[in-house]
Amino acid sequence: MPVGTLINVAAVLIGTTIGALAGPRLPGRVRTTVLASLGLATIAIGIRETLATNEFPLVLAALLLGAIVGEFLDIESWLVRLGDTLQRRFAGHPGDPVIDVEAPELAEPAEHRSRFSEGFVIASLVFCVGPLTIVGSIQDGLGDPELLLVKSGLDGFASIAFAAVYGWGVGFAALTVVVLQGGLALGAGALEGVFTDPMLDALGAAGGIMLLGIALRLLDLKEVRVANMLPALAFAPLFVWWWG
Fold first, then answer.
1. Residue ranges per domain, the chain?
2. Residue (of 95, 125, 89, 112) closest to 216 by Cα position
3. Mind spelling out the 3-state secondary structure of the chain?
4. Integer CA distances (angstroms), 154 to 26, 132, 138, 149, in order
5. Which of 90, 103, 170, 202 could lock 119 by a disulfide, CB 3.0 to 4.6 Å apart?
6. pTM attached to this predicted model
7. Rounded distance, CA 85 to CA 132, Å?
8. Closest CA to 49 of 63, 70, 69, 31
9. Which of helix, strand or coil describes residue 103?
């Protein structure tokens, strides 16, 4: 496994350990504020990524098509079930919701899922959505881990904050990082030079819109099924390439 991906995984696991151990010691109002801060920061990153492209109509088309395909595939339900399975396997009990009487807004969302699974899904999306994942993984596979080292630092701090609220489920997002980034790094030779700057900008814009959906969940404003939009990350650069 390329070194950048290994360091990224280690950063997520270390950050999760710190956050999960410290989280229960924090008052509910502190965890609520941490979650709100993460939501606001995610909005800022999402807007920045979205504004980078000059091909927004193509990104919008990719997002709509990706959402339709993702809903038919029901990707989010697969991820939630995977999170529940991981909890039963490693935590030794089913994925019941954890309700904080000091912070009831941290209780189970409208669709049934445990906080463990919610942390797994949200962390997986945040850690793996965006052009830094694609470009960094390809460069890592070619022997240059610099971008993934930067991403590792960002993911490490984010995992501390997420784990303080959602617990150990955040750490299992490292599996998603291994599969996605590791796969891209191992296939770096074939992928080198495939993505042009406009294609990466479109991918980043699609990811930015998805980050805005994640922010709505973090701020408890709307239960957006962001994982069902994941096909848009493939469609956006493909549409830009096709448009030419």
1. 3-243
2. 125
3. CCHHHHHHHHHHHHHHHHHHHHHHHCCHHHHHHHHHHHHHHHHHHHHHHHCCCCCHHHHHHHHHHHHHHHHHHCHHHHHHHHHHHHHHHHHCCCCCCCCECCEHHHCCCCCCCCHHHHHHHHHHHHHHCCHHHHHHHHHHHCCCCHHHHHHHHHHHHHHHHHHHHHHHHHHHHHHHHHHHHHHHHHCHHHHCCCCCHHHHHHHHHHHHHHHHHHHHHHCCCCCCCHHHHCCHHHHHHHHHHHHC
4. 22, 11, 18, 9
5. 170
6. 0.82
7. 29
8. 63
9. strand
- Tell me the one-letter amino acid at 129: V
Q: What percent of the chain has pLDDT over 70?
A: 91
- What is the spatial distance between Cα 147 and Cα 17, in angstroms, rounded to a whole number? 24
Spatial CA neighbour of 44 closest among 221, 200, 214, 172: 214
Beta bridge partners of 100: 103
Q: What is the pLDDT of residue 113?
A: 63
Across residues 94-98, what is the average pLDDT? Answer: 47
Place of tokens 């990350």: 233
pLDDT in tens, 102-117: 444 444 444 446 889 9
Kindly report the number of other CB atoms within 10 A of residue 193's CB atom: 7
Tell me the per-residue pLDDT of 171-195, one tens digit each, with 9 for 90 and over: 999 999 999 999 988 887 787 778 8
